[in-house]
Amino acid sequence: MYPAFGALNKHVMKPAVDEINALAPLNIQLIPMKAGKRVSGVRVGWWRKSEEELKEAWAEAQRSRVGRKARITGRVEHVSPMPSISFMARKARLDRRAQVPHVWKTNSQKTKTPPRAG
Question: Which residues of the chain fall below pLDDT 50?
């Protein structure tokens, strides 16, 4: 039970509205109805999303739930992927090989080994 409407609105209603607006095929809006200083009721309004908003909502619903709250509220940090250690080691080997000149022998330059006596 919440003693004041402000706490209910902050902790329950706004997070629910944000999640519904991010994932559902419709948007909703809650408007507190006041009688003097007190909130006597809540008016609920809803409307269908545009095609672009529907695609964004579907894409978000297909993603992992991990980090969803941060994505919805816009507090997510975008981190560029770091290459793996094996990738960096392979790149270093290739860079070292590129610095060392190779001498390639043609077939005429190769020496033939005599057959073994057995």
Answer: none
